[in-house]
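User: C-alpha cells for both sequences below?

Assistant:
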Amino acid sequence: MAILTFKYLRELQKSERDSSVLQKIDTGFYTACAKYFESSPAEGETTKPLMKSILETRERKIVTAALQSARGVGRPENLLPEEEEFFSKISDTLKTHRTLIENILSENKEKPEESLKDAVTEKISNAAASSKNVLKIRAILDIPSFVAEDMKSYGPITAGQIAELPKKAAEALLGAKMAERVE
C-alpha cells in the first residue's frame, strides 16, 4: 500500500477524475484512509476533501457501471473489496427494474391507451394466472417490485390493489403481513 500523502492523494484524485473507468488502487485503500484519520487528525482534515473526492468519484463510476451491467455491458475492473458488494446490490436491483421496464414497454406497445398502472396490474395478473399454483391477495402495504421463484418480476403493487401471484410469493407476503388473502 502506498503511503497516504497529500501528493499521492492528489495524483489519485486527478487520475480518477480524468478517466471514465475505475483506477487501480491498492486493496487496503479504505482501511488506510480510516487509519490515516485516526493517526493524524490534523493532516486528516487537510486531506479529507481529496479522499472524499476520490471516493465519491469511484461511487459515481460504480453506479454507472452497475447500470451498464444491467443493460448487459459487463462488470467493471479494479473494484475494491468494499466496492464489490455495493456494485452487486445496485446491479441486481437495476436488473430487476430493467425486467419490469421491458415487460411494461412490451405490454404498452400492444395497448398504448392503457395507463402505466393498468399495464403493471394486468402484467401481474396474466403472469400469475398462467401458473397453476397461484393465490389471490390484496396488498395491505405498498409492495415494491420483486422477482418470484418463477424468475418473473412482479409489482409494484399499491396498498389495496388485488393481484394473483405464485403461491410461494403470495405466502411470503401474507406471512410478512404485507397482504391479505382474497377468496
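Moving on to the next sequence.
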Amino acid sequence: MTGAGYRKLGKNSAQRKALLRNQVTNLLYYGKITTTETRAKEVKRIAEKLITLAIKEKDNYEEVEVTAKVPRKTSQGKREKTVVNGKKVTVYDEVKKTIRKDKPSRLNARRRMLAYLYPVTEAPKDGRKKRSMSKKVDMPAKLFDEVAVKYAGRNGGYTRMIKIGMRKGDAAPMVILELV
C-alpha cells in the first residue's frame, strides 16, 4: 500500500474535500449515514478527531453577565414605538443576561470546527413556511453540549461501522456509519 496518508477516493482534491465535509457534517448532525466502506473509513477519521476536540474543550468557558438591549413588545407581539423629534423610534429595555464566554482554546476549537463543517439549516417539521421558519444550527455548540457530554468518559471509538452488503449498481461494499 502506498503511503499518501489518506485515500483519494477517485476524486480531485476539491471534490474529495467537499464530499468528506458533507458526510462528516451529516454524521454529526443526524448521528448515522450510509456510504461506501472506503469513504466511511475516511469520514470516521475526521469525525473522531472533531469529537475528541469537542471533548477536550467542552468545559473551557466562563459565565459572564452582560446587559443587552431588547425591544419592548406590545400585546400583539410587535415592537413598541414612540415619537421622538418627529420620528418613530423603537423603545428598548435593558436586560441582564448570563452568557457563556469561550476561553481562547475553546474559541480556537470552535473556529476549527466551523472551518471544516458545513452550515446546517433546520427546516420546520410541518414543511410550511420553510424560508421564514427555518433556523441555523450551531454545530460547534451541538458538539460541545450534546456529543462531547455523551462521550466524555471514552477514549476514542465514538463511531461504529456496520456492513450492509454490496451496492446494487457497482457491487461496492456499503456500510452504515453511526455514532455509538
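User: Anything stand out in the second?

Assistant: Residues 37-57 form the longest helix (21 residues).
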